[in-house]
Amino acid sequence: MDTGIYSHQDLSGRIINFVDFINNRPDPYDDNGHGTHCAGDAAGNGAASSSKYAGPAPKANLIGVKVLDKLGSGSLETVMDGVEWCIQYNENNPENKIDIISMSLGSTAQQFDDENSDPMVKIVEEAWASGIVVCVAAGNEGPEARTIASPGISDQVITVGALDDRNTPETRSDDDVASFSSRGPTIYNTTKPDILAPGVNIVSLRSPNSYLDKLQKSSRVENDYFVLSGTSMATPICAGIAALIKQQDPTLSPQQVKDLLKNGADLWRDKEDNIYGTGYINANTSIPSD
Fold this sequence. Notes:
- This protein has one domain (9-286): CATH 3.40.50.200.
- By secondary structure, it is an alpha/beta fold.
- 27% of the residues lie in helices and 15% in strands.
- The protein is globular, with a radius of gyration of 17 Å.
- It has helices at 34-43, 76-92, 119-129, 211-215, 231-248, 254-263, 273-276, 283-286; strands spanning 15-20, 62-66, 100-103, 133-137, 158-164, 176-177, 195-198, 202-205, 220-221, 225-228.
- Helix 3 links the parallel strand 3 and strand 4 (133-137).
- It contains eight helices and ten strands.
- Strands 3, 4, 5, 6 and 7 form a five-stranded mixed β-sheet that branches.
């Protein structure tokens, strides 16, 4: 759920549906570029790079739900309509349901009487209750505390912060939370984020001639890829690993998927949960074995 999806070579044949709440166009496109990058973070297969730049779920099917415009902006109403569309889609397609919603978006959390009065929290928890795993970006307002964005403030959905591997993926000892990654607790004093996933200098899919592609030409990698940083990138990486978990056991509930991800994380001992969550996501220890 983002700015759309460009029909990139690395997603060929796997964009199975598309809905556009901004311009009502019928075919997949992405005039911003953010959504295409996020789609590749989750499910790119590396076809244009000899598998060098591939996401964790390279065989997953995708549905693009465009709720953000060319500049990456959107309204509360449009985003909520997008989530509701996913819930309705599953009611209409019981044999081929949406398993996961990845939301690399959010807004500053507003103070209501309680967390469940936040309309964005209500709608993502409705999706969660319907059986859809919901992964949401923590936000990029760190390092200050109490900066978790809505709907990531929900105590149910999987709220994802960004890890910085210092461009040394083979060495874990220097890994740390990204400075920009939003910190908890939420404004309702819930411990967040739930988990960290890689979110700094992530190479994923380029949407040619999109807003970001033109604005940040220096971020292009080779001809088909683009580098971005943010909890926006971490969230679909988490969603991709959630897809692998669901592939292994389709009967798992959203809460069971969340528990597997959190319990399988690499812990930082004696570190603050409201900065690191349960730790650094680890697919190998999160996916149930046969």
